[in-house]
Amino acid sequence: MDSPLGLRLKSLGVQAEDLDVFLQAVQRRVFVAAHANVIREGDVAKQVKVVLAGTACSYRRKEDGSRSILSFHHPGDFCDLHRYVLSDLERGIGIEALTPCTVAVIDYQNMDQLLSRPALASAFWRASMLEVALYRERLSSAGRGSAIERVAHLLCEQLARREAVGIHAPQLPFSQIDIADAVGLSVVHVNRTIQTLRMQNVLSEVKRAIEVVDRKTLARIAKFDSRYLDMPKLLSKWAVQVERAGD
Description:
Elements: H1 4-11, H2 16-25, E1 28-32, E2 37-39, E3 47-53, E4 56-61, E5 67-73, H3 83-86, E6 94-97, E7 101-107, H4 108-114, H5 118-141, H6 147-163, E8 171-172, H7 176-183, H8 187-199, E9 210-211, H9 215-222, H10 231-234
Antiparallel strand pairs: 1-7, 2-6, 3-7, 4-5, 4-6, 8-9
């Protein structure tokens, strides 16, 4: 249970027995090179994919061909759990590996079997609610606040999500271009913002890395409130009752 996936599932209420069942349902693990697609836009999904190592993102292409990042995916995260229910509605969203990634693949048929176990059904529901909370936070903050607040908030969110699965490194594995596509700013504007944070000694001076050296100041700039990331804990008192057909 000490792996990022184990810690993620544990936070969603999965115990050791059900974790073993979940891992048995993983048909295979695949390697995805950096900047390659985990899922292409327009593809019909037939499996659920879980990031085991590396960082990916969900994105949508705009009419001008530019990219809008909707969410980042860290180790232990489901890439596309929502597609399992909304496959026809979500075909316009792609998933790209931002770094080299190892991805677990679970066929929909096996997902159907996993849902017959109440603890796993509850965990998948909680994971879906966490995805909703992330999207809602992104939508509610879109276009609001200064550039430095928006960039700082994004960095705080990713640090908190990575720490939740045992990754405590201060470096974040994405580029200024990725940040720009996630917060809706130009790359030039994001670069200026990063330089400001470096001059304030919030980020390190290492030019090719996004490394946070003053977390408290970053959170203050972002006005960061992490409660929306505690969705699994908030939902732990709720249960999903799954009954087999005919019961």
